[in-house]
Amino acid sequence: MLWPPLFIIVSFVIVVTALVDFALVVTGARHHHYTLLVLTTMRLLAEVRGTQVNANHDDSHIRVDIY
Amino acid sequence: MNEDRKRILGMLAEGKITADEADMLLDALGAPETAAPVAPPSPSTGWPTGPSASGTPKFMYVKVTGNDNVDVKVPLALLRTGLKLTSLIPPQAMNQINESMGEAGMSFDLNNIKPEDIEDIIASLGEMEVNVQSAEGDHVRVFCA
């Protein structure tokens, strides 16, 4: 149930950053890559997939798999 | 009734043990056996045991053996995307990051890492191997494959 609100929030953020980037381009600012920054950050989160952590101690076992 | 219960009750009838002792023995018979914690199957059984001899490495592995057993596998694509992300950070923020890293003793400029160098960096990691043997007997290995 996390996906619908997340989808709405991400869409909103992308629209806002796109508007900001457009305004920055119009004003002639050198850095106008905020939309790309947001998208790359999301890609970074997606790249975490495949991470595995396994820790065994005498009385505890921890296993984390990110799919 | 099983043989152990019969024997306990027989000993009680013969007066060899008291009623309290018989009760304790019967309780002990009925108690479930305490099983030792069983370690889940390790995900690292299929992992490579050393750096890849050829090709671009896909994952960074950290293996700790000894008193504690720890296995960590991190995709190198994370490094690739992370380095690309640094080129998109606004210059003011990047300067602050570099200053903070310099204060923490890591005085290198992330702006110097160009996107075209990323693949070379990752390919070079395939030859990297770190082996640490601690005084407590733990053995730490870091490699990419």
Strand order of the largest sheet of chain B: 2-1-4-3
Average pLDDT for all residues of chain B: 82
Class by helix and strand content of chain A?
alpha+beta
Number of strands of chain B: 4
Textual characterization of the structure:
The complex is a heterodimer of chains A (67) and B (145). Chain A is an alpha+beta fold. Chain A is 57% helix and 15% strand. Chain A contains 2 helices and 2 strands. Chain A has helices at residues 3-27, 34-46; strands at 52-56, 61-65. In chain A, helix 1 packs antiparallel against helix 2 (34-46). The mean pLDDT of chain A is 91. Chain B has 5 helices and 4 strands. The model of chain B has no long low-confidence stretch (mean pLDDT 82). In chain B, strands 2-1-4-3 form a 4-stranded antiparallel β-sheet. Chain B has helices at 3-13, 19-30, 77-86, 91-103, 118-125; strands at residues 59-65, 69-75, 129-133, 139-144. Chain B has 145 residues and is an alpha+beta fold.
Name the features.
heterodimer; A: 67 residues; alpha+beta; 57% helix; B: 145 residues; 5 helices; 17% strand; elongated
List the helices and strands and how they pair.
The complex is a heterodimer of chains A (67) and B (145).
Chain A: H1 3-27, H2 34-46, E1 52-56, E2 61-65
Helix pairs in contact in A: 1-2
Chain B: H1 3-13, H2 19-30, E1 59-65, E2 69-75, H3 77-86, H4 91-103, H5 118-125, E3 129-133, E4 139-144
Antiparallel strand pairs in B: 1-2, 1-4, 3-4
